Amino acid sequence: MRSVGKTDVLARRQEHERTGPDPGPVRSLPWFREEPSRFPGIETLWRTRLREWEGEVSDWNRGVIEEFRANEGKVKAFARQPLLLLTHTGARTGTRRTNPLAYFRDGDRYVVVASKGGAPTNPDWYHNLLANPKASIEVGVEELDVIADPASADEREGLWNMITERNPAFKEYEAKTTRTIPLVILTPARDEAS
């Protein structure tokens, strides 16, 4: 193993300071450090892994969306859990995005869970819906315009019990995180012509 001299460390730090942080999607994350790191090699590796993960999730979602649309809303990987496609508008970019999400019915409303698999942060689609509550969903072959509202604390309690009873995986996601997992209620928009 080669020992790293003081000049090697200084040279790497100067190179990092000269080139600056990599301008990838990571820069938009609130916990990303803008100042030079004491460990630039580790942060570069971390940013690379994060981009790979984002790409994998994106590819996986794309495959689910294609299968959903080709099979009238049915996806083999979710045989026991109904899915919908949520199309929403980006809070900062205004770009329309589509995400496949598990849903639960509550009367004529659709309830989606911002679990992100138990991650410490809420999913991007949740933030987008808070900024732009008008969205659309695809359920089976039907397309609906909806209005998104986060469930109130009282409403959430009853809905959360129903959700975890129907799909215990959400209880596992809750155990993985310290945040309260938000529930979003998607209510079909009333046709103004009626």
Topology:
Elements: H1 6-19, H2 40-70, E1 83-89, E2 96-106, E3 109-113, H3 124-131, E4 134-139, E5 142-150, H4 153-166, H5 169-176, E6 183-188
Antiparallel strand pairs: 1-2, 1-4, 2-3, 3-6, 4-5, 5-6
Short structural description:
By secondary structure, this protein is an alpha+beta fold. Helices cover 39% and strands 23% of the residues. The chain folds into two domains: 6-56, no CATH class; 73-188, Roll (Pnp Oxidase, Chain A), CATH 2.30.110.10.
Describe this structure in words.
The structure is a single chain. By secondary structure, the chain is an alpha+beta fold. The protein is built from five helices and six strands, in the order ααβββαββααβ. The N terminus is likely disordered.
Task: Give keywords.
alpha+beta, 6 strands, 2 domains, 194 residues, disordered N terminus, six-stranded antiparallel β-barrel, Pnp Oxidase, Chain A
Mean pLDDT score = 80
Principal-axis shape equals globular
Architecture (CATH level 2) name of the largest domain:
Roll
Radius of gyration: 21 Å
What is the overall number of helices?
Answer: 5
Q: Main β-sheet, in a few words?
A: 6 strands, antiparallel, barrel
The CATH homologous superfamily of the largest domain is termed: Electron Transport, Fmn-binding Protein, Chain A
Helix/strand order: HHEEEHEEHHE
CATH topology descriptor of the largest domain: Pnp Oxidase, Chain A
What is the CATH C-level name of the largest domain?
Answer: Mainly Beta
Q: How many beta strands in the DSSP annotation?
A: 6
Percentage of helical residues? 25-40%
Q: What multimeric state do the chains show? A: single chain
Low-confidence stretches: 1-6, 20-33
Count of individual domains: 2
The helix-and-strand class reads alpha+beta
Assess the beta-strand content as a share of residues: 15-25%
